[in-house]
Amino acid sequence: MNDALATDGRDIAVTVDSVSKRFRLANERRTSLKELFVRGRSSYHDFWALRDVDLQVERGTTYGLIGHNGSGKSTLLKLMAGIHRPTSGSVEHAGRVSALLELGAGFHPELSGRDNIYLNGSILGMPKKKIDEAFDRILEFAGLGDFIDSPVKVYSSGMYARLGFSIAVHLDPEILIVDEILAVGDEDFQRRCFDYLAELRSRGVTIIFVSHSLALVQTMCDRVAWLDHGRLVAEGPAIEVVDAYVRDVNKRESTRLERTHTVTPDAGLDTSNRKGTGEIEVLGLDVIAGDDGGMAVTGEELTLRVRFRAHSPVENPVFALAFYPEHGQKVAGPNSVSMDLGVLEGDGHVDYHLDRLPLQHGHWKVSIGVTDSTYTHIYDHLDRTASLTVQTGRGPAQGGDVVLPGTWRLSTVADATLEETR
Ligand SMILES: Nc1ncnc2c1ncn2[C@@H]1O[C@H](COP(=O)(O)OP(=O)(O)OP(=O)(O)O)[C@@H](O)[C@H]1O
């Protein structure tokens, strides 16, 4: 631990200097004693989880690490927390570090929650008096009731997370390092954790965390580091780095999906779940997007084209779409009833256009229906058989399945007074 003022005068809490981390992995397993004798000891190969990573976390800021699975985020957190040592390079802290990494790490399974609070406190270098002072607050926040006197080995993963978080944040950290662990708690607990993190942040605690929730990273972090295969791809203000990461992920996904589409042009349409009399037959659903990659993106322009074949003349049919989250209830069901389509015969298509797609990122199921104008006669109906992948948009992150197009307006008593005196 040392005081760290950068050459430009910034007050630095954690410095990661040219850090690389190598793990040694066994090439194969020897499953029996005989194999061990016959083939000798296992051979190993080196795996570099991090390569030449340089970054500085300024005191009092909230810092996020993002990147694909296995990109090295947790390894970097562990190096920052002093749990791993770098193979080369150095990590320096200026402040007391408290880390919440793997579930249950730092807990003794046979000891009660109560005893583990004292054990963890002393590992963090807290005098017993300080732990006594924080004890009731830790207990209250963890909300474990009578379980606090049971050995932690009987705890659920959510209970581990509650106790771990409560200890880590109440023992007066100067630098708090948190891995994705909070994801295991229930929604109420997560909300309290984030409120608490915001409070620590306002008190000037440096917070470093890993999350796959880009919305959370963008909301909470000042700066972000993006790792890819152990290398630092970008480091900078949260909004910019997350935006660049999202664009990269979207580009990769577009390439992947384009490949799928080339193999089977109607890949998105499974016709097994179909009913109707067949005078009009739905041939396919095309996604026509405004962006470069041709992908559906939240908040951006999108046209869904229903291609059809009318086997005999049909007067004024109604086309309908319904949108379902992958494992959820219908969220919208637009139809063309307000439009007179005339008599349809032969092949054609109907476009449903959105200036700003309100569906949030994820995999959606789309139903396509064609009925008469009273909806009683079904010509064709494909129930949740088309797939639509929506990518994260550039707008501010919002929870839930859809983006509502509302606006916010603030009025305060002070404003009202101001108005009156004008
Ligand atoms: N103790 C270890 N021994 C061997 N390899 C390891 C060890 N810890 C991590 N690795 C490897 O290092 C790479 C980076 O792992 P790490 O857990 O840091 O990634 P991550 O970005 O946190 O991934 P995720 O988003 O999936 O949690 C992975 O390939 C992982 O298998």
UniProtKB/TrEMBL annotation:
Residue span(s) of domain ABC transporter: 31-254
UniProt-listed InterPro entries: AAA+_ATPase, ABC_transporter-like_ATP-bd, ABC_transpr_TagH-like, Bact_Polysacc_Export_ATP-bd, P-loop_NTPase, Wzt_C
Keyword ATP-binding: yes
Keywords: ATP-binding, Nucleotide-binding, Transport
Assigned GO CC terms: membrane
CDD domains attached to this UniProt entry: ABC_KpsT_Wzt (cd03220), Wzt_C-like (cd10147)
Keyword ATP-binding: yes
Protein name: ABC transporter domain-containing protein
Taxonomic source organism: Cellulomonas cellasea DSM 20118
